[in-house]
Amino acid sequence: MENAPVIDSHVPLAAPNARLADSNARLIDSFGRLHDNLRVSVTDRCNVRCFYCMPETDVRFVERREILDFEEIERFVRIAVTLGVRKVRITGGEPLVRRDLPVLVRRLAALPGVEDIALTTNGVLLPKLAQPLYEAGLRRINVHLDTLDRERFLRITRRDEISKVLAGLELCKQLGYSKIKLNAVAVKNLVEPDIVPLARFGREHGFEVRYIEFMPLDAQNLWDRKKVLLADDIIRMLSREIAPLVPVPDPDPRAPASEYRFADGVGRVGFIASVSRPFCLNCNRLRLTADGKLRYCLFAIEEDDVKTLLRSGASDDDVAALIRRNVAGKWRGHEINTARFVAPPRPMYAIGG
Ligand code: SF4
Questions:
Q1: Can you give the residue ranges of every domain in the chain?
Q2: Does the C-beta of 334 come closer than 6 Å to ligand 1?
């Protein structure tokens, strides 16, 4: 048993393959939350340097050999699917800097049981990759864009790349991506001038803007509650400047964004209000980091080592047991609004959105 997997003895290993055959297997935690959404980070590297995510210089990335390869990712997703995972979102760092990413998208899209694949990107490489990703089966894409202003884009990302992002968005539209969303991080006293222009841009092009409250996940501990532009503030701004916003009943209450439509019938926006309106009690998400750690929460302090299992000859059952153990130990939710809050040991770029 020298290749025996490194897991705690109190988790009884089911008879080989008994569980894998059980297509009704589901990942339900101690709060009754069903987990069917897996975020897969394929790299911690990025081609921009958003100030609220990573330092401008001297960023320490994981060594390449520590990053899961496509076979390992595909195997993990295949096992997770047998436990009820149905949705996969590919994230980073910046996923498009991972070589041959369309190959992975095609492999995951072909996995029986995977009903939905989406990707979150900063869009800089979309002019080059939007077509091969589309041909690989990708249809849903979130593009991170906080501003349409070239100067502010440069100030936020420390890269002068906005024209590529806009060209990439236009190409995604032409190719026929079914759902194109813009993820805009709302940092107070910085992006207020962008809130309305972004919404107008979304209305004009059929993109759904998601305003994301600034979260304490940056590598330099810049976060401060005073720097969070709250969802309610943005709703007031948009209702005043464009048209009243009408809440849209959640098609899936477990989705992180609360959605609104403009009363004039043109366009929708969403709010991911982790700070002012935490949605943890509806959370259905798990995260696999690029270096093979399983996290039950963006803010988790602890994580489980999947890579060692995958690389030590463990069986699919053992990997499944680890996933179950992870979900079984999931906490109630982040504690940003309590004195107990401790920032996770990993910054956002090393977790994935
Ligand atoms: S903070 Fe954690 S528990 Fe809450 S919704 Fe996000 S991932 Fe889920």
A1: 25-351
A2: yes
Domain made up of 25-351: CATH architecture = Alpha-Beta Barrel (3.20)
Check: CB of residue 268 under 8 Å from CB of residue 198.
Answer: no
Indicate which residue's Cα is closest to atom 5 of ligand 1.
280
Give 161 Cα–ligand 1 centroid separation in angstroms: 31
pTM for the complete prediction? 0.91
Q: Please report the atom of ligand 1 found closest to the CA of residue 332.
A: 3
pLDDT in tens, the chain (353 residues): 334 333 333 334 344 444 444 545 799 999 999 999 999 999 999 999 999 999 888 899 999 999 999 999 999 999 999 999 999 999 999 999 999 999 999 999 999 999 999 999 999 999 999 999 999 999 999 999 999 999 999 999 999 999 999 999 999 999 999 989 999 999 999 999 999 999 999 999 999 999 999 999 987 888 999 999 999 999 999 999 999 999 998 878 888 999 999 999 999 999 999 999 999 999 999 999 999 999 999 999 999 999 999 999 999 999 999 999 999 999 999 999 999 999 999 999 999 87
CA of 317 to the centre of ligand 1 (A): 26
Going from the C-alpha of 64 to that of each of 83, 288, 290, the distances in angstroms are: 29, 16, 10
Q: In 3-state terms, what secondary structure has residue 268?
A: strand
Cβ of 299 less than 6 Å from ligand 1: yes
Which tokens belong to 224? 């401060």
User: Which of 285, 332, 335, 338 to probe ligand 1 with, by most ligand atoms within 8 A of CB?
Assistant: 285
Distance 335 CA to ligand 1 centre (A): 10
CA nearest to 320, candidates 310, 333, 329, 330 = 310
Q: Judge if the beta carbon of residue 280 lies within 6 A of ligand 1.
A: yes
Is the shortest distance between the CB of 331 and ligand 1 below 6 Å?
Answer: no
User: Does the CB atom of residue 33 touch ligand 1 within 6 A?
Assistant: no
